[in-house]
Amino acid sequence: MKTLPVDANDRARIRAAIARAEARTSGEIYVVVARVSGDYRYVPLIWALLAALFVPLPLIAFTQLSAGAIYLAELVLFVVLAVVLSLPGVWPRIVPGPIFRDQAHARAIEQFLAHGLSATEGRTGVLIFVSMIERYAEIVADSAVDSKVAPGVWNELIARLTADISAGRLAEGLIGAVERAGAILEEYFPIQPGDRNELPNDIVFL
Questions:
Q1: Are 100 and 169 members of one domain?
Q2: N- to C-terminal Cα distance for the chain?
Q3: Looking at residue 161, what is its pLDDT?
Q4: How far is CA 74 from CA 47, 64, 65, in A?
Q5: pLDDT 10s digits, 91-124
Q6: Are residues 50 and 127 both part of a single domain?
Q7: 29 and 102 share a domain?
Q8: Containing domain of residue 143, as a range?
Q9: Which of 117, 168, 172, 111 is nearest to 141 (CA)?
């Protein structure tokens, strides 16, 4: 069974924060937390392959080893590095930052569409997305929100959220992000008579 990064009490607190925020705005807030956003198994293999490709150069230049021995050394280095660099505590450190960001952003867009945030009546859906391995957070907003809220408005929210995640305060960070997102949406999209809750007030873990 997968261990969730927040307990049942924290999950209930996050749900309550979403409900409180949406009570003041016609916007819809949804929270998704992914453990990891991409399949990075190829990255350790690429690093191991690149390292192995350079093995023959010093061996040819400074030793009298046979071609077979050099090939074997190259193969052994590739296998050892591929195994070591694939260890859970190692591989996240060798993935280039731009690859992490691209994969996490793509996952955020995927989740925005998958959970119906692009189909709300007023086009006011807002996704708070976090990817733990990548240490990445993003706000994805639908067209009506984007037309009124400049992207820079979300920067402080993201900065605080990522700081809380880095400090091990995921639940507190998400609650704060929901509260700030609610305040931003309330300014531009205050609650309207007859407004209905179109999406669950929940947090999804992937």
A1: yes
A2: 13
A3: 92
A4: 13, 15, 12
A5: 888 888 899 899 999 999 999 999 888 888 888 8
A6: no
A7: yes
A8: 8-38+96-205
A9: 117
Contact 201, 22 (CB under 8 A): yes
Residue with tokens 């190829």: 42
Is 69 found in the same domain as 152? no
Six token digits for residue 184: 């931003």
- How many CB atoms within 10 Å of residue 36? 16
Q: How many domains does the chain have?
A: 2
- Is pTM beyond 0.70 here? yes
Ranges assigned E (strand) in 51-177: 125-131, 136-141
Give the Cα separation of 153 and 173 in Å (integer): 17
Hey, what's the torsion of the CAs at 163, 164, 167, 171, to 10 degrees? Answer: -160
CA distances from 39 to 70, 105, 137 (A): 32, 14, 18
pLDDT of residue 1: 39
